[in-house]
Amino acid sequence: MSIRRRRVSELLSSMDDPQVAVLLDQVVSNARGLESGVYLDFMAAVLFDPGLDYRRRRDVYEAMIGLGFVDNAPIMLETPDRYAEFPFYDLEDMPLGVRRAKARTRDRDLLIRLCRDRDPDVIEILLKNPVLTQAEVLRIVSMRPQSGKVLKRVFCNARWAYRDNLITALVLNKWAPTGLAMALVPVLGLKTLKDVKQDRTLHKLVREMAARVYKASLIRT
Question: 3-class SS at 221?
Fold first, then answer.
């Protein structure tokens, strides 16, 4: 995983914006013909690991629009977290350093409570905790509202990345960054694609991406 991501980052740094635009559109458009891990490593490198900085992503977005790749171009847009009134969290008054330390605990009840933390660094430590199970990670990804920064950390985590149920939960969470959700749509199963394209709580761009991938998948079959 880390080698593939590093190679993608090196490749992108050697290409100009139009070349990256063409490559990105080709990879996303043909994602269902690729091994899912390879595709998701590519997208993680493009978006987050270390990814393209804001200026470069904007330039690639404009290059994609100029080349006519309007459907996939919004993946490059950096969308800010939506404002949300988060529900009461019983540990939120605890200093951040203390919460980070407690994220290393083996106390399962405390870990479950910490899953509600909105600081991405606390969640990063939690994700590396060997006591944490997939059920808790799914709780983090499915939480509504949820911080987009937290969802990014789950997607980029080497231990939990690319598990089908977590990817599905991330796409179905309306609080997920739009570009990330769009990038994950091509690896969803047909039933989930159908659910996503009909889910009016999700961003229009995510629903439209799901409709395109669903239609193309039916044609292939």
Answer: coil
Are 88 and 104 part of one and the same domain? yes
Residues 19 and 89 in one domain: no
Tell me if the pTM is above 0.85.
yes
43 occurs within a structural domain: yes
d(C-alpha 106, C-alpha 86), whole Å? 26
- Across the chain, which has 221 residues, the per-10-residue mean pLDDT values are 90 96 97 94 89 91 98 90 82 94 95 95 96 96 94 92 94 96 97 97 97 91 62
Distance between CA atoms of residues 157 and 52, nearest Å: 18
In a domain, 56, yes or no: yes
Planar angle of CA 25, 12, 206, nearest 5 degrees: 35
SS (H, E, C) 119-187: CHHHHHHHHHCCCCCHHHHHHHHHCCCCCHHHHHHHHHCCCCCCCHHHHHHHHHCCCCCHHHHHHHHHH
Sign of CA pseudo-dihedral 111, 121, 41, 183? positive
CB 189 within 8 A of CB 172: no
The token pair at 97 is: 């350093």
3-class SS at 10? helix
Contacts of 220 (CB under 8 A, 6+ apart): 32
Q: What is the distance of C-alpha 185 from the center of its chain?
A: 10
Closest CA to 140 of 162, 164, 113, 163: 113
